[in-house]
Design goal:
The chain is α/β, with parallel strands linked by helices and 454 residues long. It is 40% helix and 16% strand. The structure holds ligand GBH. The site of ligand GBH has 14 residues, from loops.
Length: 454
């Protein structure tokens, strides 16, 4: 038996737009994902989050599923357009009430609520006013953060400001594969800075209203970047992607600086004058932990890549190589070494920052067999390998406090719609029937024994 430390947090994670549905209920207005998913050609099969897993109406049932799993923590996100439909001004009572009920029911079930304030559903009105490339959006976010903290502060244990600002900035405004679907490299860089600023301003707003024991955090999808070969050219490609994928957030948030090489690499695009005096003090407001979402590594070499890119300025310098190994239904390689590499790097670079894996998991082509059971041995193997890597990192002195499995439920997988299933609980979207998969039973056993078998 490979035990995890006592007090280790075992959780599952979800996000509002991916599971809630009820897109027009109780005063909720469209977010950029409502608009984007309604735009033909943006999301596979024309799928939208209008109904999703109908979690808005099935929240108690879903908390019951988690109680059966025995999770200690649940990571959910708050839909900004449910709480503050125009992105400014007073809150909508009914929107906040939904999350208040959720937090109370979680507490009653003995589960710690972990709330993410932004998992990509910007109110459409704020995008119409310029979105994340516009500085004002950071101020709007801080106001919203203060409202939610005022309403839920006594119940939520951990607050995450942003989920994966890399995706929000570079997939949303760079490659355009995520909402709002813009393809403007300068807008993407501006968005990245204003997301850092939004994070810092939100940390200030949260600290001003929260009880002292609340934990404040942010979640990054850090890239485990590897150079294809040890040549100087390939190592330089890896440095560039490390700057654009990792240090663009890590440096402002944890070191109060911009990465100098990133500023130099992108000098043809922008002079970065949108970063104002004092901003980097705000972005580096102290946090209590760092959340890491990890799925697979990124292998790069010197070369070029085509098309609207999430890597501003690197198009003519870097090519992406498929990593070897087995693949998930997303075609992402299964490679837990990348997670180990990230964790040990962060131990060395940020020795005082506790780490939490806020997402890890895999999509496979799951189906219910004639007996109504869902057998997902590949997902169990994926999870076992990644938890093994976490266990090894713990043994090597990495301060990992918890692990949140993505995801509790099959859900709306962004540009892939409902075609990809990440849940450990199967959802039949026609009937909304929930069926725990074999992986759910496996995870419940891991939690119950406090570690991995064997
Ligand atoms: C997370 O995104 C999300 O937080 C979650 O909502 C989502 O459902 C889940 O993961 C599964 O996708 O380097 O350009 O080739 C993870 C998104 C996946 C983004 C890998 C970067 C590689 C893009 N990340 N992806 S690229």
């Amino acid at each position: 038996m490979r035990s995890f430390p006592s007090g280790f947090r075992w959780g599952t994670a979800t996000a509002a737009y991916q599971i809630e549905g009820a897109a027009a209920e109780d005063g909720r207005t469209p977010s950029i994902w409502d608009t984007f998913s309604r735009t033909p050609g943006k999301v596979r099969n024309g799928d939208t989050g209008d109904i999703a897993a109908d979690h808005y109406h099935r929240m108690s049932e879903d908390i019951g599923l988690m109680k059966d799993l025995g999770v200690t923590d649940y990571r959910f996100s708050v839909a900004w357009p449910r709480v503050q439909p125009t992105g400014r001004g007073p809150a909508v009572r009914k929107g906040l009430d939904f999350y208040r009920r959720m937090v109370d029911e979680l507490r009653a079930a003995g589960i710690r609520p972990v709330a993410t304030l932004y998992h990509w559903d910007l109110p459409q009105e704020l995008e119409d006013a310029g979105g994340w490339p516009q500085r004002e959006t950071a101020e709007r976010f801080a106001e919203y953060a203060g409202i939610v903290a005022g309403a839920l502060g006594d119940g939520v244990a951990t607050w995450t400001t942003l989920n994966e600002p890399w995706c929000a900035a570079f997939l949303g405004y760079g490659s355009g594969v995520h909402a709002p679907g813009r393809t403007d490299p300068v807008a993407a860089l501006r968005a990245a800075h204003h997301l850092n600023l939004a994070h810092g301003r939100a940390v200030q707003a949260l600290r001003a209203v929260l009880p002292a024991e609340s934990e404040v955090s942010l979640t990054l999808n850090l890239h485990a970047v590897r150079a294809l070969t040890d040549t100087e050219a390939d190592r330089d490609a890896a440095r560039r992607i490390d700057a654009l994928g990792n240090r663009v957030f890590l440096d402002p948030v944890f070191h109060g600086r911009l990465p100098g090489d990133l500023v130099a690499d992108t000098a043809d695009l922008t002079d970065w004058s949108f970063v104002r005096d004092g901003d980097l003090e705000v972005t580096s407001a102290p946090v209590d932990s760092l959340g890491i979402n990890y799925y697979s590594p990124t292998v790069v070499a010197a070369g070029t890549h085509e098309g609207p890119s999430p890597w501003p300025g690197a198009e003519s310098r870097v090519r992406f190589e498929p990593a070897p190994g087995p693949r998930t239904a997303m075609d992402w390689p299964v490679d837990e070494e990348g997670l180990y590499e990230l964790l040990t790097r962060l131990r060395d670079e940020l020795p005082d920052v506790p780490l939490v894996i806020t997402e890890n998991g895999a999509a496979y082509e799951d189906y219910a067999d004639p007996e109504g059971e869902v057998h997902d041995p590949e997902r169990v193997a994926y999870l076992d390998r990644h938890l093994t890597a976490v266990h090894r990192a713990l043994g090597d002195g990495v301060d990992v406090r918890g692990y949140f499995l993505w995801s509790l439920l099959d859900n709306f997988e962004w540009a892939y719609g409902y075609s990809k299933r990440f849940g450990i609980v199967h959802v039949d979207f026609a009937s909304q029937r929930r069926t725990p998969k074999d992986s759910a039973r496996w995870y419940a056993e891991v939690i119950a024994r406090g570690g991995l078998a064997g």
